[in-house]
Amino acid sequence: MLGWALTFLVVALIAGVLGFGGIAAVSANVAQILFVVFIVLFVIALLANALRGRAPR
User: Fold this and answer.
1) 36, 27, 25: which is closest to 9 by C-alpha?
2) Which of 12, 34, 37, 47 could be disulfide-bonded to 27 (CB atoms 3.0-4.6 Å)?
3) Where in the chain are the domains?
């Protein structure tokens, strides 16, 4: 998912340089949303792993 966010960020940067403002804005918004979703899922995974802990032997 982080790869998709970076891809949309690159598309937004290229579109912005070439003067396609609408495409750049949409791509930047999608990249931002995907990045936030990635961060939220990452934090949830960290918390789940920390709460689960190690099984006793």
Assistant:
1) 27
2) 12
3) 2-52
